[in-house]
Write a structure and sequence with these properties.
The protein has about 450 residues and is of the alpha/beta class. The protein has 2 domains: about 110 residues, Urease, subunit C, domain 1, CATH 2.30.40; about 300 residues, Metal-dependent hydrolases (TIM Barrel, Alpha-Beta Barrel). Helix content is about 35%, strand content about 20%. It has 14 helices and 17 strands. Strands 1, 2, 3, 4, 5, 14, 15, 16 and 17 form a 9-stranded mixed sheet that branches. Strand 1 and strand 2 form a beta hairpin. Helix 2 runs parallel beside helix 3, helix 2 crosses helix 14 and helix 4 runs parallel beside helix 5. The protein binds zinc ion (ZN).
Length: about 450
Amino acid sequence: MTSLVLSGAHVLTLNPRRDEHPAGYVAVDGTRITEVAAGPVPERLAGARQVDASGCLVTPGLVNTHHHLYQWATRGWAFDATLFDWLVELYPVWARIDEPIVRASATAALAWLARSGCTTSMDHHYVFPRHGGDVLGATIEAAAEVGLRFHPTRGSMDLGESSGGLPPDHIVEDIDTIMEATQAAIGRFHDPSPGSMLRIGVAPCSPFSVTRELLTESAKLARDSGVRLHTHLAETDDEDEYCAEHFGCTPAEYLDSLGWLASDVWLAHGVHFGDAAIARLAASATGVAHCPYSNARLGAGICRTRALLDAGVPVGLGVDGAASNEASSLLAEVTAATQFARAAGGPQAMTVRQAVELGTLGGARLLGREAEIGSLEPGKLADIALWRLDGVPHAGIADPVAALVLGPQPPLELLLVNGRVVVEHDRVVTVDERQVADAARRASLVLAGRD
Ligand code: ZN
């Protein structure tokens, strides 16, 4: 029984043959895709809800592999600073977050991600003020309300300033508290079943904010629990210097020495990986979440995506936290991945289709979901984006994928997540966007101490 059919669109399947149908249709039954084909809709599907998608491009929903949703309330701070200076200015502000602030921030961030074509997002939450309430639970409620497939990680920091770390002592936790809370989060929320809308990961923050013991214990807990493992790595020159000084090696060598590099791990940024690190990532099938706009905003550099892909490293895209990427549009990251790769490596360094693939299948692989999402194929989950390309901004660009990637962000005609309509006619329909904006504004005023 088919419930919905999108017809008359250019269909970018990203199936194993990379088929495209210039005038095709996609049929959905409940939460799954049932048919993807060229040509008009067959008579036998006439009873389903029909969506005339002519003038549109259908793609798999985008997959966001790195974010800090709580940062939506702290956008526009330290906007001319490096990563370390930006962190030092923001840590004391983030120390004041609590459950209502995180709920408001996460709802706004997820609603905007949906508007940019994202159907699955991870979150890396690593700030847990002692009296802040259930901030991880608040992000999970927000994702359920907006309706995105969600892979939150229980992040952590245990290396305060007095022990040689970057964050102030009052916003780090002790390792026992972290391990107990992480185990509890997995037990309470993680859903490993097929089609899952919610999977937990484990994510100590970075080499300069967590101890060696926490990295080791976190990897053990994740592997004992069958969940994935994530951290920031090789983001800036400052981090390289920190690792050389404190550990006598590169960030990648440090993680490797702790048994981290493996196919259940993905690393945010990876801007400063050398050839040896890239070979080691490829051999271990460790993934990289490429966050081009955040890296540019903080002047961190440009990730060597061409070298990573040539070596066979799994690569996905991430918007990163909204405090280091005020735009926070996942489609914009697809564009940036294309343009930055070419700016650094020449016109052949990234095709527009490769960039869409990083933002869909690539991300799905980092989250361990490539069998279920990331392409339009019968049997896969109905996570689908429908982009309108017949308006002024794109009219006249013959290739619809080039129009999507190189043109401005098009209106999002429809976004389905697990078969449910989340965006229609470029508006989020699961939440009231006006109320979400008001709540986010109030949250940022509270954090700025101006309420
Ligand atoms: Zn980050």
